Structure formats: structure tokens, C-alpha cells
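Saturday, quiet lab. Running sequence design on the C-alpha cells for the scaffold JK sent over.
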């Protein structure tokens, strides 16, 4: 069986594009792509799905091709020009055929080594014409260790709306050890993972992850969980779906056995590509530690930036003498002041909270200016970090023109004591007119009645009711009296 596989691989390597397309079409696989891509699919077919029918088809295509080629050549090739390797390749097919065949020299091709590269998607034959490839954006929380399968287009095999695209690959012993020896982020979830990423087939720029409609991923006959939709509370707004890498590790064979992945997707006109990667998933704490190591901006550079922002503009009629920066964001004091280099403001946000937020729902938007703030553009403000350690009792500071700063502390609450006389309407001393000066008052000023607002209203009402009852007992019932105001009367305040 091993000898037949080697012979089948050698025959496939000698096929032309038309022969490769006929072989792939015979087994119902995609026939599109460059020659090296077709060779890759055919070699995978020989290794994993080489049934007697497939082997017979390969032999038929091989004999047909060399029969046609030999008929076009007038003089047959001399026997001495045929290498021993070529003789061994074609010896099993010379029986029953008297037509001379041309030789295929294989002395410079190491088929097992070449196939080992194709098996894991780690290499390609150098194409004659450089074709742009689909690229995926780098994800801060995923560090790529190996590329198992480069982004490959999902090609529909029929006119049906629901399509299936299979993929077969195997892990190397080194990759298996990396997965087994990695730490657990949570029970059952390793930090080193095999992930599937899907994006639009667009070579103009790096693409973000984007799922096709009706997506389902099956690994070795087990369906993987795919992130669901975010619920939308707004009427008429479609719910959004977080498109993240799909972890396939827990359903894979962590051995030399081959793994089969089947992607089910909806064919609605848009073209998608899939890629397989061996990655190490990072946590927000690890990204924060990395940012503290390589992303701290020196205080003097931050001070120079403050001077640049507050520099007098001769063309402007308004001179800025200072700018305030809050030390409290989202009701929490900053612990690691951070902002993006692309941001134009001096206000910082907290790096710890920002990374934790993007770990759960990656948006990478600046909470201050609502512009993109990717991880590789983040910096830690060294000047503001120094200020936070020196000024612990202030919630806000102000940067001055010369780059210095001063704390702005919260003002004390103003006294609630009244600053002007308060007229008590309906009292026995006021009959709708301003009180007359009293000789007992200081400097001849009238003494005004003051209502203490700190007293309980219920207690004051009870006292008034008791006074009214005493007056009623002494003087008898009296008609109700209205408060009359004269024209021109103003408030005492």
C-alpha cells in the first residue's frame, strides 16, 4: 500500500493543470486556483482518501497523458537518457503498452519532504506569477505560533444556498506538545489553541473576522460552538454578531491522526476565505504587563507634548492658558493612565479597565474621543502616572503653558444659612407691608423674622396649629385673612 501511495504521488506531481482539474472534479473537489494549489489538494486526496477508484482514475489520467505525448514525438527517446528513477516510476505501467513514453526525472525532488510541508499548510510551491493573498488583521489577544492553512477561498460546489467545504490536516508532534503543555485559562480551555478564522476574500487590505450566513463548523463529527448574536433593544436594528476566532482544540485528535473539519456556510453571493492557525491566547493582565514593559512614554516627552498643545497660536485670537485633566474616569480613579498615540487629547483613560473591556467585547474605541485606539497604538502617560503618585487628594489637575501642573481640589460646600431676610407671609408682624424700623434693632434696621429651614416641617406645622388654637381660645373665632401685596413690593432678597 505504501508503494502504491508513493507511485500515486509521483504521478500526481507530473500532471498538468487540466489533469489535476479532471482528478479533483472526479471526487467533487474545487478545481479553481493555481497549479500549486491544485497539486496540494490532489496530494491530500492521495494521502487521506485514496480509494481504489481514485487510484484507478490517477492511473488512467497518467496513461492517457503520456500516450498523447508520445504520439506527438516522432523519434522515441533513447533508452540511455532515462534515469533509473524514471524507470522505476513507469515500470508498472509499461506492461500491456508498446508505446514508448518520455521520462520524468525525479532526482531533484524529495516527495516525502515536500508532501510533509503541504500536509500542514506550512509551505507552497513558489508560484510563477505573484498572486496577492488574503490577509487577516492581527488580534492582540492571539499570538500566532504556526499557520496550519493559509486563507483559502470557500468555493461553492453547486447552486444550493447551503454549502459544505471540508478540510483535512494533521498536527506535528511539536504542535501537539505545545497544546498539551500549555496552561489552562479556565477549566477545559488551553491557552495554546487551534483556531479557525473566516473573513471576506479581499486582497486589498488586512481583513477583519467575518462569518458567512448560516455558519456551522464540525470537527471530527462534532459541532463547535460559534458565538451568537448580541441582542438589540432598538426597534428596526438587526442584532450584531461578534466574529471571533473559533476554538477547535477540544474536538481535535492530539496525536498524529488526521483531523477533518467541515465548514457549512450560506452561499448568498459574497466570497469568504478560511484559515487555520495555532495560536496562544493572551489575557488582559498579560497584555497590560507587556504594555508596561514597552509602552511607557517618558515624562519629559509628555511634558513637551503639553507645551505643544498649549503653545500660543499667532493666528488665533483666543489664547489657551491651561487645560484640565480629570484623574477620575467612569467614577474610578486612574491607576494606569493610557491613551492612543493617534488621539489629539491629553485626557487619559484607565488601561486596566480598557483591556478588560476589550477582552470581553473587542471594539478598540477610545472612550474619550470615540476614535479607534488599537492595542499597538496605546501608550502609558509617564507624566500623569507621576502626578497620580504625588497628588492623591485631588480629582482633577490643570496643565499650564510652561508644562507644569497644579491640583484642583473640590470646593467646600457653601453654607446653607440665609444671607437675606426672609418674610414669613401670614405672620402676626406682617400685614402685607414691609416691617417698620424698630428702635431695638441694631443701627436702626428692622429685625426680620427668620425661618429655620433645618427644622422638620411637621414640627413647625404642629407649633403653628397650637398657637392658632390658643389665639382662638382667647379671642374667639376670627375670619380668615388674606395676604395682600401692594404694587411695587419687591422681595427682601
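Result came back. Writing it out in full:
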Amino acid at each position: 500500500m505504501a508503494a502504491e501511495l508513493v507511485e500515486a504521488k509521483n504521478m500526481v506531481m507530473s500532471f498538468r493543470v487540466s489533469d489535476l482539474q479532471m482528478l479533483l472534479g472526479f471526487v467533487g473537489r474545487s478545481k479553481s486556483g493555481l497549479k500549486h494549489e491544485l497539486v496540494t489538494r490532489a496530494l491530500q486526496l492521495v494521502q487521506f482518501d485514496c480509494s481504489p477508484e481514485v487510484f484507478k482514475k490517477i492511473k488512467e489520467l497518467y496513461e492517457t497523458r503520456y500516450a498523447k505525448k508520445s504520439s506527438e514525438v516522432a523519434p522515441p527517446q533513447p533508452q540511455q537518457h532515462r534515469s533509473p528513477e524514471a524507470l522505476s516510476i513507469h515500470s508498472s505501467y509499461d506492461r500491456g503498452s508498446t508505446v514508448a513514453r518520455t521520462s520524468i526525472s525525479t532526482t531533484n525532488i524529495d516527495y516525502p519532504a515536500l508532501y510533509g510541508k503541504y500536509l500542514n499548510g506550512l509551505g507552497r510551491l513558489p508560484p510563477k506569477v505573484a498572486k496577492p493573498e488574503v490577509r487577516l488583521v492581527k488580534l492582540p489577544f492571539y499570538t500566532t505560533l504556526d499557520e496550519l492553512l493559509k486563507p483559502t477561498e470557500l468555493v461553492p460546489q453547486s447552486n444550493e444556498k447551503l454549502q459544505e467545504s471540508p478540510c483535512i490536516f494533521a498536527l506535528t508532534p511539536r504542535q501537539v506538545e505545545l497544546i498539551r503543555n500549555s496552561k489552562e485559562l479556565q477549566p477545559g480551555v488551553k491557552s495554546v489553541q487551534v483556531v479557525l478564522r473566516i473573513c471576506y476574500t479581499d486582497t486589498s487590505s488586512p481583513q477583519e473576522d467575518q462569518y458567512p450566513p448560516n455558519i456551522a463548523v464540525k470537527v471530527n463529527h462534532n459541532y463547535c460552538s460559534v458565538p451568537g448574536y448580541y441582542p438589540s433593544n432598538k426597534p428596526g436594528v438587526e442584532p450584531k454578531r461578534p466574529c471571533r476566532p473559533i476554538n477547535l482544540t477540544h474536538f481535535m485528535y492530539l496525536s498524529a491522526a488526521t483531523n477533518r473539519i467541515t465548514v457549512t456556510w450560506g452561499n448568498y453571493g459574497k466570497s469568504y476565505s478560511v484559515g487555520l492557525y495555532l495560536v496562544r491566547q493572551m489575557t488582559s493582565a498579560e497584555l497590560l504587563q507587556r504594555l508596561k514593559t514597552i509602552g511607557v512614554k517618558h515624562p519629559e516627552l509628555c511634558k513637551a507634548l503639553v507645551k505643544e498643545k498649549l503653545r500660543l497660536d499667532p493666528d488665533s485670537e483666543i489664547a489657551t492658558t491651561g487645560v484640565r485633566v480629570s484623574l477620575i474616569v467612569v467614577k474610578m480613579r486612574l491607576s494606569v493612565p493610557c491613551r492612543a498615540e493617534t488621539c489629539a487629547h491629553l485626557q487619559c483613560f484607565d488601561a486596566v479597565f480598557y483591556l478588560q473591556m476589550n477582552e470581553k467585547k473587542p471594539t478598540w474605541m477610545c472612550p474619550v474621543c470615540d476614535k479607534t485606539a488599537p492595542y499597538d497604538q496605546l501608550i502609558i502617560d509617564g507624566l500623569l502616572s507621576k502626578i497620580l503618585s504625588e497628588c492623591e487628594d485631588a480629582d482633577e489637575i490643570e496643565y499650564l503653558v510652561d508644562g507644569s501642573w497644579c491640583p484642583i481640589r473640590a470646593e467646600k460646600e457653601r453654607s446653607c444659612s440665609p444671607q437675606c431676610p426672609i418674610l414669613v407671609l401670614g405672620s402676626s408682624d406682617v400685614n402685607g407691608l414691609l416691617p417698620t424700623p424698630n428702635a431695638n434693632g441694631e443701627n436702626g434696621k428692622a429685625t426680620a423674622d427668620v425661618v429655620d429651614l433645618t427644622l422638620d416641617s411637621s414640627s413647625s406645622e404642629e407649633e403653628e396649629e397650637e398657637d392658632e388654637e390658643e389665639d382662638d381660645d382667647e379671642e374667639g373665632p376670627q375670619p380668615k385673612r388674606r395676604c395682600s401685596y401692594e404694587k411695587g413690593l419687591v422681595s427682601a432678597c
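Notes for JK: The mean pLDDT is 75. The first strand starts at residue 142 and ends at 153. Ask whether to fix the surface positions before the next round.
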